[in-house]
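Suppose you are handed a protein chain with no further information: no name, no annotation, nothing but its sequence. What can you learn? This example shows the usual starting point.
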Amino acid sequence: MNGPNANLTPWITEKFISAAPKAAAQALGALATYEAVLLLKPLKAQYMVACLEPMECGKAAAILRRLPARQAAHVLSRLDLRQAAKIFAAFSVPQREKMKMLLSASLRTALEGVDRWPKNSAGARMKTDFLVFKTEAKLSEIVEKLKILPRKKLPAACFITGRDGKLKGFIRTAELAFYTLESTAGSVMSEVKAVLASAPLEQTQKIFDEGQPLVPVTDENEVVLGVIAPEHAVAVPTARKKRFGWFGSIC
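A reasonable first move is to predict its three-dimensional structure. Written in structure tokens, the prediction is:
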């Protein structure tokens, strides 16, 4: 990967992962760990996630362990929750403790609780990549945070919590342009409906039918653990899941 073609390597790897993530996971998983790290480390998180989600958990854990800790924590937070939990469990105890310091409290709770939730529950299908702000946060702070995200990663809404960490409301991203930037999140937020992590996935569809763009998933203390988007709200049929391995980790 040295020489005049070195700059092409990340670009080629990204194209490979974009075109065939499962094949890329298999190919990179077959390499020595240090070689896989060299190829993946320069990539954006979205490409690493696409490659690590279908990868064998032990290999994915070995790769993450060799990344800078903050980069590894960021990638872990964007992985499918079940895959993230398996990778996290594959870390040694000292590595898990170090990683916990870099993860949000809600993600730590989700990683520890995922095995308790039925496979077609909200907790099992939620994604942990979401934005949350305090009621006193200025809208200018929210806008600046959104500006650094790729256009494809802009969320339909941001969630608002109180100082106690409990969910209070949400703000549609598209509506931010209608408010002054000095307004606080709590003064412009809308009422939000949420579901418990243990709730059947079907409950989220009722909320989508009422026009809410995202459904937050909470624990019993009203702390946001994850989010369900409309495309995640379809339950996986047991027969198809069994046949094709949906939910799908290969470990």
